[in-house]
């Protein structure tokens, strides 16, 4: 039964990620890796919010955790696409972007996670 919670959350997260990619592509001039950066930052914020809230309310090992953190956030965020995006910008000779993209991804995602945790206190 627990697999259903992970699958449901993961499916919703993956669709949400796809929608973010579509919206950015249709309404901005953001580079293709921009949506990956955005979902990883937002996903880190959400993981912080969910984790902090669930821990604070004694639900850290509950089905809610499987649905929201393992499922939704796991389906929403992506590291494999991040790696592919980094490979592409390096292959295109965009060395400044190749330096800044992983730096911003890690620093801003960690900051968003911390913000999410602090918001639950």
From TrEMBL:
<keyword id="KW-0812">Transmembrane</keyword>
<dbReference type="GO" id="GO:0062054">
    <property type="term" value="F:fluoride channel activity"/>
</dbReference>
<keyword id="KW-0997">Cell inner membrane</keyword>
<keyword id="KW-0813">Transport</keyword>
<feature type="binding site">
    <location>
        <position position="74"/>
    </location>
    <ligand>
        <name>Na(+)</name>
    </ligand>
</feature>
<dbReference type="InterPro" id="IPR003691">
    <property type="entry name" value="FluC"/>
</dbReference>
<keyword id="KW-0472">Membrane</keyword>
<keyword id="KW-0406">Ion transport</keyword>
<keyword id="KW-0915">Sodium</keyword>
<dbReference type="Pfam" id="PF02537">
    <property type="entry name" value="CRCB"/>
</dbReference>
<feature type="transmembrane region" description="Helical">
    <location>
        <begin position="66"/>
        <end position="87"/>
    </location>
</feature>
<dbReference type="GO" id="GO:0046872">
    <property type="term" value="F:metal ion binding"/>
</dbReference>
<keyword id="KW-1003">Cell membrane</keyword>
<feature type="transmembrane region" description="Helical">
    <location>
        <begin position="32"/>
        <end position="54"/>
    </location>
</feature>
<protein>
    <recommendedName>
        <fullName>Fluoride-specific ion channel FluC</fullName>
    </recommendedName>
</protein>
<keyword id="KW-0407">Ion channel</keyword>
<dbReference type="GO" id="GO:0005886">
    <property type="term" value="C:plasma membrane"/>
</dbReference>
<feature type="transmembrane region" description="Helical">
    <location>
        <begin position="99"/>
        <end position="119"/>
    </location>
</feature>
<feature type="binding site">
    <location>
        <position position="77"/>
    </location>
    <ligand>
        <name>Na(+)</name>
    </ligand>
</feature>
<comment type="function">
    <text>Fluoride-specific ion channel. Important for reducing fluoride concentration in the cell, thus reducing its toxicity.</text>
</comment>
<dbReference type="GO" id="GO:0140114">
    <property type="term" value="P:cellular detoxification of fluoride"/>
</dbReference>
<keyword id="KW-1133">Transmembrane helix</keyword>
<keyword id="KW-0479">Metal-binding</keyword>
<comment type="similarity">
    <text>Belongs to the fluoride channel Fluc/FEX (TC 1.A.43) family.</text>
</comment>
